[in-house]
């Protein structure tokens, strides 16, 4: 209180001058450097107040606080644009996935501008930078033996001549017999579903009856990472500020043992897999989308690694 009274009595002239970072904003030696990445909003809808309050506004408030503290701050965000939800929306509106992304990226950017969200850069995940960085991370995983191949049974529509993503299949729920269950979840009983478990499956695109066929996919070999991940987590939990919920969920995954996770999909809309035998596939959106934080920063500045690979600052 005494310090606040003293500052008030000395007046605004005695306050430190506000920090004006150069453009682009890059880490500065000797300063506190803060990188803020607001959760990437999905591109296939119009943002509403809940979306904005849920992630964008809270990050914006923190970014403004950091700047008031004269911390060197970069705040980036962008639309998450790959995945089956985009393809589904494109079919609904009679547009291509690219046209859907262009349309809704502009809507998102305009709405955040209207709300005066103080992004230093608002980008998107469907860029050449995203392809370059995602494929580079994939090649590094491959070279270090952290990927494996396995056969997966999937529904294939012979009429559409393609394997069907979960959202392109409907049928009867095997648990509650609801007749309009999706290939990933039943909206009536709420249970998660593997599309091949559906009774009377139907292709949403042509209404044809798909057949079960095996297809080869690539998996992230998470069990191989477990030994190195556990000590890192213990250190991070001790030093970091993890929520109780985040700790609980992570511990439960480790307790049950990590499982290999499929990182490829039989789709057209996505980052291409740069490996012979898999070039007709794309990366699964949850492998691809988090890399969007890096690629959006890379679209902002070609010196993006100074933010992402710079533990000293």
UniProtKB/TrEMBL annotation:
Example of a GO cellular component annotation carried by this entry: aminoacyl-tRNA synthetase multienzyme complex
SUPFAM superfamilies xref list: Methionyl-tRNA synthetase (MetRS), Zn-domain (SSF57770), Nucleotidylyl transferase (SSF52374)
InterPro entries: aa-tRNA-synth_I_CS (IPR001412), Met-tRNA_ligase_1 (IPR023458), Met-tRNA_synth (IPR014758), Methionyl/Leucyl_tRNA_Synth (IPR015413), MetRS_core (IPR033911), MetRS_Zn (IPR029038), Rossmann-like_a/b/a_fold (IPR014729)
Catalytic reaction list: tRNA(Met) + L-methionine + ATP = L-methionyl-tRNA(Met) + AMP + diphosphate
UniProt keyword annotations, A-Z: Aminoacyl-tRNA synthetase, ATP-binding, Ligase, Nucleotide-binding, Protein biosynthesis
Family note: Belongs to the class-I aminoacyl-tRNA synthetase family.
Domain Methionyl/Leucyl tRNA synthetase: residue ranges: 34-311
Biological process (GO), any one: methionyl-tRNA aminoacylation
Entry protein name: Methionine--tRNA ligase, cytoplasmic
Species this protein is from: Rhinopomastus cyanomelas (Common scimitarbill)
PANTHER family reported for this sequence: METHIONINE--TRNA LIGASE, METHIONINE--TRNA LIGASE, CYTOPLASMIC
Gene3D superfamilies linked to this entry: 2.170.220.10, HUPs
GO MF annotations in UniProt: ATP binding; methionine-tRNA ligase activity
Secretion signal, residue range per the UniProt entry: none
